[in-house]
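Quick review question:
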């Protein structure tokens, strides 16, 4: 049948809508305390609508001691006071709905804060009724009698996943910070409490669904075995094989749907790391076995991360990037599953800096090139705040000591430097080399890159993010006078205008861009990325009007030659959009030359062709 397989159940808002992620601390401060807030978000709802956003995803704004920027929740039913109140959230929900937009909240239920009332009870005594709501284990003992944690698992934020509790003489599990104990999903009563407090409370207020944090980590392998040793220099080892995608994961998600989500027709987008097998991902996102509406599969944003330690940057080549994009575009073809298109979020370096070029002469074209790529990909499109104006990574002279704030990268840095000092004692040069390498890796990949305040204008040194004279909670990017919303709103050729245009185009050709099939061309080329989107499955020609789009992207700062796919595969295609102002003129010259389907792309040039 000549239809796109992914198009089963077309017309769904959560497939066709453009989603935009807001990181509350850094979006907009309305009351001059240096921290973003809900009233600040409210003041920008019209900006989002105008950009073309249909779905607003708000990262955690719940009550929290903020050890991990709100991913450590102490009360699901209350709002972090500096951000506002539950009533403010209700106003935001209503404001989105009044403009025809949907709103998703973050659902962080793998763990709570250690300040949550549930954990306070759980840790109060071994026979407390809530003891079993978290994961407690007795110690192991080494041959010399010293106490050891129950396993050698490494926490995401460095060190062990186990914290010793002096009071009750047991360890509790925390995959993240020690202030973020893991909930025990094996306990039915705990699951019911989570459903009520974290989910029904907000669904009753009208939220349309959730981005689900660590969605594949609730079910741990109950043997609690040591992880294999990958990093012989330290005791703690990467252990996701023991705690991700555990035996009851799918059962828990089915229960969550039948108990809660189905009653509200709520949508979920799960955060799904450590799951490289498409067949496995399909189990989560297949529409038949309703578990999750869609997921963020992490292969694309993991590119460049170290295999043993996240902030040990590894160089990569374009064919790998292209194959990764192709894999997570194509895995739903012929199935009832759904995918997402994204390359930024609050845990990632900025895409212009990571995947293209943030040099002054290239960064605007780079941002537009990535926009061209993303806006033409199949699946639900997610944009992260600031991506629409091409915000870039923090400058290389920002220091870990003064400017970086993120618990993950700061802890990683200190642990790596300590390990280097121990392993290379006396060799100052080697220690310095290692330290510089980790700093550079964090500058490329660090989460703080995404958390600098949103650059609204050049009205003050905080880029209009806050009026507080001493600035925001986090340093503003030095380049805000050049990269900001107000400036770009006044420029028809800005990155912001380009994104708006691309989002409009995407929505006016849903069959091609949102539901189409993806075909990669010239996969081994290290400089250019050429792909087609078609409304027909691979192997079938897409030669009728409106049936095909071709995207050609030069991922280098040199001139590159590309070949448009043959006419018998993609039909007669015409230039629709380019990121160079004179793309149309350049195209005319090339078309009239004797070069046939060959095109020459300038540094970071991208073009979109569509069948007429
Ligand atoms: C994933 C979130 O995106 C990240 O920011 C957070 O640190 C961890 N989960 C823990 O909740």
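Suggested answer, residue by residue:
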């Amino acid at each position: 049948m000549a239809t796109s397989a992914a198009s089963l159940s077309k017309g769904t808002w959560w497939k066709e809508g453009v989603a935009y992620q807001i990181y509350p601390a850094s979006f907009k401060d309305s009351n001059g305390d240096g921290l973003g807030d809900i009233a600040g978000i409210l003041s920008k709802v019209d900006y989002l609508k105008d950009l073309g956003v249909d779905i607003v995803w708000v990262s955690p704004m719940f009550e929290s001691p903020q050890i991990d920027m709100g991913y450590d929740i102490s009360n699901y039913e209350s709002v972090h006071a500096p951000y506002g109140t539950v009533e403010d959230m209700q106003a935001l929900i209503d404001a989105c709905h009044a403009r025809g937009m949907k709103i998703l909240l973050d659902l962080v239920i793998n763990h709570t804060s250690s300040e949550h009332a549930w954990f306070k009870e759980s840790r109060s005594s071994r026979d407390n009724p809530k003891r079993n709501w978290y994961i407690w284990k007795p110690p192991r003992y080494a041959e010399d009698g010293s106490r050891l944690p129950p396993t050698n698992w490494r926490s995401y934020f460095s060190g062990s996943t186990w914290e010793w509790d002096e009071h009750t003489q047991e360890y509790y599990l925390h995959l993240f910070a020690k202030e973020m104990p893991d909930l025990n999903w094996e306990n039915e009563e705990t699951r019911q409490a989570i459903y009520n407090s974290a989910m029904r409370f907000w669904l009753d207020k009208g939220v349309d669904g959730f981005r689900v944090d660590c969605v594949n980590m609730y079910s741990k392998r109950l043997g609690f075995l040591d992880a294999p040793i990958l990093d012989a220099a330290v005791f703690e080892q990467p252990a996701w094989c023991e705690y991700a995608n555990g035996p009851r994961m799918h059962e828990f998600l089915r229960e969550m749907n039948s108990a809660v989500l189905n009653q509200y027709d709520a949508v979920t987008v799960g955060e799904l790391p450590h799951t490289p097998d498409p067949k496995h991902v399909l189990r989560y996102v297949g529409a038949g076995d309703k578990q999750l509406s869609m997921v963020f599969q992490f292969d694309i944003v993991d590119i460049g991360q170290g295999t043993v330690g996240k902030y040990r940057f590894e160089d990569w080549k374009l064919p790998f990037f292209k194959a990764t994009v192709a894999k997570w575009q194509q895995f739903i073809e012929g199935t009832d599953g759904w995918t997402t298109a994204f390359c930024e979020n609050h845990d990632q370096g900025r895409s212009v800096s990571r995947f293209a070029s943030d040099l002054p002469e290239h960064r605007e074209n780079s941002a537009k090139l990535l926009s061209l790529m993303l806006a033409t990909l199949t699946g639900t499109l997610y944009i992260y705040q600031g991506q629409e104006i091409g915000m870039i990574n923090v400058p290389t002279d920002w220091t870990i000591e003064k400017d970086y704030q993120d618990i993950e990268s700061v802890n990683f840095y200190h642990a790596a430097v300590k390990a280097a000092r121990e392993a290379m004692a006396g060799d100052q040069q080697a220690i310095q080399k290692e330290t510089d390498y980790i700093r550079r890796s964090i500058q490329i990949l660090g989460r703080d890159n995404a958390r600098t305040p949103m650059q609204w204008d050049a009205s003050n040194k905080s880029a209009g993010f806050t009026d507080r004279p001493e600035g925001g909670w986090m340093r503003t990017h030095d380049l805000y006078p050049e990269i900001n919303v107000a400036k770009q709103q006044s420029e028809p050729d800005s990155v912001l205008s380009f994104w708006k245009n691309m989002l409009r185009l995407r929505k006016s050709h849903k069959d091609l861009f949102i539901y189409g099939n993806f075909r990669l061309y010239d996969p081994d080329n290290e400089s250019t990325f050429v792909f087609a989107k078609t409304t027909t499955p691979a192997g079938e020609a897409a030669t009728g009007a409106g049936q095909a789009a071709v995207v050609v992207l030069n991922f280098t700062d040199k001139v590159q030659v590309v070949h448009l796919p043959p006419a018998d595969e993609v039909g007669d295609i015409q230039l629709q959009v380019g990121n160079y102002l004179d793309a149309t003129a350049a195209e005319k010259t090339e078309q009239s030359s004797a070069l046939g389907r060959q095109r020459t792309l300038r540094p970071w040039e991208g073009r979109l062709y569509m069948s007429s």
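Why it works: The chain is about 30% helix and 15% strand. The longest strand covers residues 528-534.
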